[in-house]
Structures are given as C-alpha cells and as structure tokens.
UniProtKB/TrEMBL annotation:
One of its GO terms (cellular component) is transcription factor TFIIH core complex. Residues 290-309 are annotated as: Disordered. Residues 412-477 form the Transcription factor Tfb2 C-terminal domain. Its main location: nucleus. One of its GO terms (molecular function) is double-stranded DNA binding. Component of the general transcription and DNA repair factor IIH (TFIIH) core complex which is involved in general and transcription-coupled nucleotide excision repair (NER) of damaged DNA. This is RNA polymerase II transcription factor B subunit 2. It holds the Pfam family Tfb2_C. It is found in: Nucleus. It comes from Aspergillus tamarii. Keywords: DNA damage, DNA repair, Nucleus, Transcription, Transcription regulation. GO terms for biological process: nucleotide-excision repair; transcription by RNA polymerase II.
Length: 480
C-alpha cells in the first residue's frame, strides 16, 4: 500500500500541541477533514474510516490482525501518528481488553464533513457577486504566481542583478522571512541562508506550508490566537478555487490573517475592506496529495520562463565537464538562484552562460548553502538532452551503478571545495544509554533502525542516537 507522506513542518507543529488545543481544533469539520486528508498515511486513514462509524471501541487484537506480518512497521507507524495527533485513543473494555476508538470531537467533525451535515459555516460562505466582477481562475493563478515569485525573488536577490520586481513586499512579509531564518540582513543587504536555499528548492506546496507554519508560530507574538489562525488555514485549504467567499462571518483575527496572506498570493481580495475574497491555487491545493504535479504555479516557478513550456520540473540547465554552465531561461528567479553559486558571463533573451568556479562555490558556502544543495539543484533542473546523454553513458560504462545526470568531475569538485572549509555537521536528536545488558540494548536499537530514526550506535558502549524518541520510548515501555 502506498504511503501518503505528510508535510513534516505542519506535522511537527501539530505534534507539539497539548491535548486541549487539539480539542479546540477538532471542533471544526474543515480542520478534521484537512488533517485526515493531508497529515495521515494511507494505512492510518484506513484505520480511521474503519472505526469512524463503530458504536463501541474495537479490540486491539482485531485491528492489528488486519495488517500482514511483514507490514508491522507500517502498522506501528500509523498507530503512532494517530496517537500523537490525538485522533485514536486507547481504552479498556470488558475483561481488561485493550481497544481503540476515534476520539471526539474529531470523530463527529469528520462525520459531518464527509456527509455534508455540518451547519457551522466551517467550509466558508459563498459570496453572490455579479458576473462582471468575478475573477477568473487564470487571473487568480497569475496573481498567485506574481506574488509568490516576488517573495522568492526577494529571498534570492533578483534586484542585485538589476532585475526589477513588480511586487512590493510588505514589512510583515520581510519580517516573517527573517524570523524564519530564511534570509539575513547583512550590511543592509538581503542574503539567503542555508535554510532559505533549501526552501526555494522545495515544491511550491511545501514552501507554502512552511510559510504558513511560520505565520502560525508567530501569531501569539502579534496578538492573535495561534489555534484560531491554524484552524483558519485549514478552512482556506478546503475552499473551492474560482469561488468567492463572504467575509462578514469572519472574526477580526481571521480578517487580519486574510490581509497578511494576500501579500503571499495565498488569497486574493480587491482591498482589505472588500466584502469578499478568493482563495488562490496556493491555498486550495494545500491538502491535495498531488498538488505539485498539476499546479501551473509550480510549473512557472520551477521551469524556464518565456520558452513556451510551463511543464513543472522541465530541465533547462547544461553543465559541461569544464564547469561551464548554460541555462535556457529568462526567469529572474532562476537566474538569481544560479547566480548564487555561478560566475555569470553573458545574458541573452532566453539564455544565460556562466562558469562554476572555486570562488563562486565558496561564496555560496559562506552564505550557508551546501555542496549537496547546489548539486541537487543542478540535477533537478538538468536539460533533457544532458540527462539522456549522461544516463546512457553511465549505464553503458558502469552497469548496475545508478547513473549520474551531472559530470562526475563537476560534482566531485563542488564537494571538494566545500571540504576545504572542513565543516562539522550537527544533528539534533536524543541519546539512549545505560542499558543493563546487551539484549536490552539491541532490541530498541534495531527498532530505531527499522523505523528510520537511528543516526549512530555503539554496540560496545551500548548507546545509540536517534532523531526522534517518541516511538522508541513507547517501544521500551511496551517491553517492561
């Protein structure tokens, strides 16, 4: 069974919330539906739907029997996620039998969302406006693209190349990018950080979630309720593209959030005083598993501009073994990204040329950008012809070895230039130690490796280091 991956940042934020906050969030059917659609792996969704309409709790042995023996890892992961999001709870029924049930109010809210029985305006109120005043989907897409590209352009410094931006960002947008450590101000200049470069390499849906979580986390500091803002974000994700929605039912905090999100292109409104608003594709695809695949906004940001192709992820970069780079693009955003680690030579209407040099790579590394990030960007946007040539050459010369899209001499040299700085990489996590016996140590260590959280171990010292501790701690408790 395929597993739908949840976006890590919103999931991590939700996981950190206390149980009382979940109770407030799940009062809204739109929130329950959004979390069900986007935050849960497929197996967890199956468990929820199987239990949703049961009158009594289901014995744990019955639920666990639904999963094959070779899929116990997926089962434990699904149950763990449902528990951490306070969707599934353990209870004890007759004869001290352990059982599972879907918690309230999540169960009642999800049932209302699925049957259309909710009457709390949790999914917005449609606005009735004249046909002549309706904004088309194409216009909404263009607005969202311009606003979002303006944000990314500010981060990578399009103005530093003499490229004029047609979007003026508000002070709040700039402060949020700084607070999220996506950019830094040095000598009155905006410089992208390592986190910022990783951010611009992500698909648009992941980028939007990242920004929204930064906004939610900062809500309390600017006098708003983070729970209300988060619930409103989930409401926006459930709205329909191309429809206008009335604002008269919104609270003051929700109206303020609308104005702030309009700066990012997530919603559109004629003015802050307008009686209605439109969600853009950036909002309506937030809880869609395939948003990045079918999103024209993603295509216009990730591929060449003005070349007649808006196909998401279409390659436009050629890198030669002599480190020369050719990029078939006129996108200010892509040109600015390439300029971060390349010495640009010439610029034509739909082509730029440059060279990857020691100085240009070291300049990028000093900004916090890593060699792997540079290589990942070049490989992701490699021209189809280059991809075809290098793949055929790699498969013919080294059968069984994964082909490299980029010339090996280039990738090796970029990494060597980073090694000159001899950086130490820190990994945050948790250390488990002081095990009484080797047998006591081996079982949780093996379990941590199976669920993909193990970073380091020492059998001699009976110690291991993990990036997450919740499931390992639960495993240890279950063995006592």
């Amino acid at each position: 069974m395929a597993m739908a991956a949840a976006p890590s940042r919103p999931f991590d934020y939700l996981e950190s919330l206390p149980g009382t906050t979940f109770y407030k969030l799940y009062q809204q059917p739109s929130t329950a539906l959004a979390i069900f659609r986007r935050m849960l792996p497929d197996l967890a969704k199956c468990f929820v739907m199987a239990l949703l309409y049961l009158k009594d709790p289901l014995p744990a042995t019955d639920l666990e029997a639904w999963v094959k023996a070779e899929s116990l890892k997926e089962r434990d992961n699904a149950l763990s996620i449902l528990g951490r999001l306070h969707i599934l709870s353990n209870t004890v029924i007759a004869d001290n039998v352990r059982a599972y049930k879907v918690t309230d109010p999540f169960a009642s809210s999800l049932r209302q969302a699925l049957t259309g029985a909710e009457k709390t305006q949790s999914f917005g109120v449609l606005s009735h406006i004249s046909d002549g005043a309706v904004i088309s989907i194409a216009e909404l897409d263009d607005y969202a693209r311009r606003q979002w590209e303006g944000v990314l352009g500010y981060m990578v410094g399009t103005s530093g190349l003499g490229i004029q931006r047609d979007v003026n960002l508000s002070k709040g947008v700039k402060q949020l990018l700084q607070a999220g450590h996506l950019v830094e101000i040095r000598d009155r200049r905006v410089e992208i950080t390592q986190d910022g470069f990783a951010f611009v390499l992500q698909d648009v849906s992941t980028q939007v979630w990242h920004i929204l979580m930064l906004y939610v986390e900062s809500a309390d500091a600017i006098g708003m309720s983070s729970v209300e803002v988060l619930s409103f974000v989930f409401l926006l994700s459930s709205l329909e593209l191309g429809k206008s929605y009335d604002k008269k039912h919104l609270t003051s905090n929700q109206l303020r959030t609308l104005t702030d999100l309009a700066d990012f292109g997530i919603v559109y409104q004629d003015s802050p005083d307008a009686s209605h608003f439109y969600p853009t594709r950036l909002a309506t695809t937030l809880t869609s598993d395939s948003s990045a695949l079918s999103n024209p906004i993603s295509g216009s940001l990730s591929g060449p501009s003005g070349t007649g192709s808006n196909k998401a992820g279409s390659g436009f970069i050629i890198v030669e073994t002599n480190y020369r780079l050719y990029a078939y693009t006129s996108s200010p955003l892509q040109i600015s990204l390439i300029a971060l680690f390349t010495t640009l030579k010439y610029r034509f209407p739909n082509l730029i040329t440059g060279k990857i040099t020691r100085q240009s790579v070291r300049r990028a590394i000093e900004m916090g950008i890593t060699a792997d990030q540079i290589i990942s960007y070049l490989a992701t946007h490699a021209h189809p012809q280059m991809r075809k040539h290098n793949v055929s050459r790699s498969t013919s010369n080294q059968a069984g070895i994964p082909p490299s899209v980029l010339p090996p001499t280039v990738t090796d040299q970029i990494r060597l230039w980073q090694l000159e700085r001899d950086r130490v990489k820190a990994t945050p996590g948790f250390l488990f130690k002081d095990f009484v016996s080797l047998a006591e140590y081996e079982a949780p260590c093996r379990y941590a490796e199976e669920i993909g959280v193990l970073v380091w171990k020492s059998d001699r010292k009976r110690m291991f280091f993990v990036t997450r501790h919740e499931q390992v701690a639960a495993f240890l408790r279950s063995r006592k």
